[in-house]
Design a protein that fits this description.
With about 280 residues, this protein is mainly alpha-helical. The protein has 13 helices and no strands. α12 (about 230-250) runs antiparallel to α13.
Length: about 280
């Protein structure tokens, strides 16, 4: 076993690669709020805060689902990647470092940092009592663009709230698709989700509606923020990626859904941030 193996196991445990889902929307909100690039120290602080918050949220989720994950064939290997004690320590340290990082950003971000942690932690409990669990995951990631905007401006505004709503429905949609893989295990364990409530066909139709709302809200964000042609070209590409994702989802092929889940949604984030950066920096 190489010296890098523990790091690799840790990154796999927290699904570090999934950072590509929330980070682009935070960075896009950042450049729009600053009308360009903010000072480098602030960029670093925003990125570091995002990484700490996500690490804390993911380890908290792993801890709350520790026994459930071991009974799910899809997730049964997760607990072997990191000990429970190490996960608790990681969650605590990441939470503290997230709050500490916001102290260096501005007073409003620091004051709201415990609220942000509370939102992202609360999601981990929701599938035990509500079929709207996917909405709470959407809310958890919707915090990212608002936080980045507040980091730059220190005040609320309409564009980041519209973007947060787009992220909310985007996450709710693709997590509904992803949850089709756990339909049987969730029913057996008495867990709740949009898929358990509606059944797979109706849940996939709901995901289509959520993603239609996502696209409309992304267009509204571009209009409200005064973005130009580069952004709206990116928006057309995002529409194509969403259509592709739903075509794959209809096959109910688990391997294909896994690939579409990561690839399509990762590319949506990349295209979004490219559109905003080209508009504000070109």
């Amino acid at each position: 076993m190489t010296a890098l193996a523990p790091t690799a196991r840790f990154l796999q445990f927290i699904r570090f690669s999934h950072t590509v889902f929330a980070m682009p929307f935070a960075l896009g909100a950042m450049v729009v709020a600053a009308n360009g690039l903010p000072p480098l120290p602030l960029i670093v602080l925003i990125v570091v805060a995002m990484v700490f918050a996500r690490t804390a949220a993911m380890t908290f989720n792993r801890l709350t689902d520790w026994e459930l994950d071991q009974r799910n064939p899809r997730t049964s290997g997760r607990h072997r990647l990191l000990s429970r004690g190490a996960a608790i320590a990681t969650c605590a340290v990441s939470s503290a470092l997230f709050i500490a990082t916001t102290w260096f950003i501005n007073p409003l971000c620091f004051a709201l940092s415990p609220v942000a942690l509370g939102i992202v932690f609360f999601y981990s409990f929701t599938k035990r009592f509500t079929h709207a669990a996917q909405f709470f995951l959407g809310l958890a990631l919707a915090v990212a663009p608002v936080g980045a905007w507040l980091a730059v401006t220190g005040s609320f505004a309409a564009p980041p709230l519209i973007l947060a709503a787009a992220v909310f429905f985007w996450l709710a949609g693709f997590d509904t698709i992803y949850a089709t893989q756990d339909y049987e295990i969730d029913r057996r364990e008495g867990l709740k989700s949009m898929v358990v409530w509606l059944g797979i066909p109706a849940a996939l139709r709901a995901a289509q509606l959520f993603h239609a709302l996502t696209w409309l809200l992304l267009a509204a964000f571009g209009w409200s923020a005064g973005l130009g042609p580069a952004y709206f070209v990116a928006l057309a590409l995002i529409l194509g990626l969403l259509v592709y994702e739903h075509r794959v989802a209809r096959t109910l092929d688990v391997a294909a859904i896994n690939a579409a889940f990561f690839q399509s949604n990762a590319w949506i984030g990349v295209v979004f941030v490219a559109g905003t950066f080209l508009d504000r920096l070109a």
